[in-house]
């Protein structure tokens, strides 16, 4: 009897472990993009430094902001697919950087349920380097998301959005946009 009970317990524990392994939900994703710009850091920062002004990003058709560059400021950006609301978490004019996060998700506009980002301008040789890092979760946080809302879709969308923005910034600052 004891041997049967031990076998049942071992089987039960195995099933619990297997279930937990498949029911972990989404994992954080990451996108890091960098671009070199042939302009001094101060000129690049001038184009970026106003949290509410994202006119350098060709994928953003409109932006409305409140709060300036103070922590807690908010902006609503309009993409071709809809609006996203973002909040400013940190800002340093001296270090030429700011960090922000998604405040209100819109899965139809962008296939992520949450993101945070940080943009930094640094000197690089005779010009500048802009680094944009983002951490995010896919749109469907369930265990079996559809293809258009899974990790790969989120990574693709975020990477393309960041690359488009950095290329737009480069064109604007270098006088090509």
What does this structure look like?
With 177 residues, the protein is α+β, with helices and mostly antiparallel strands. It has one domain: START domain (Alpha-D-Glucose-1,6-Bisphosphate, Chain A, domain 4). 29% of the residues lie in helices and 36% in strands. It has 3 helices and 7 strands, in the order H-E-H-E-E-E-E-E-E-H. The chain has helices at residues 2-22, 41-48, 151-173, and strands at residues 29-37, 62-66, 74-79, 82-92, 97-104, 112-124, 127-138. A 7-stranded antiparallel beta sheet has the order 1-7-6-5-4-3-2, with helices on one face. Helix 2 (41-48) crosses helix 3. The protein is globular and about 75 Å long. It starts with a helix and ends with a helix. Residues 17-21 have low confidence and may be disordered.
CATH superfamily: START domain
In the CATH scheme, the class would be: Alpha Beta
Assign a percent range to the helix content: 25-40%
The helix tally amounts to 3
- Largest sheet strand order: 1-7-6-5-4-3-2
Number of strands: 7
From the 3D coordinates, which CATH architecture would you assign?
Answer: 2-Layer Sandwich
Question: What's the SSE pattern?
Answer: HEHEEEEEEH
The span between the termini is 80 Å
Indicate the CATH topology: Alpha-D-Glucose-1,6-Bisphosphate, Chain A, domain 4
Main pleated-sheet profile: 7 strands, antiparallel
Looking at the structure, what is the overall shape? globular
Computed Rg: 21 Å
Tally of structural domains: 1
The average pLDDT score comes to 89
Estimated share of beta-strand residues: 35-45%
Low-pLDDT windows of residues:
17-21
Secondary structural class: alpha+beta
Keywords: Signal
Signal peptide: 1-23
Pfam families: Polyketide_cyc2
Organism: Hyphomicrobium nitrativorans NL23
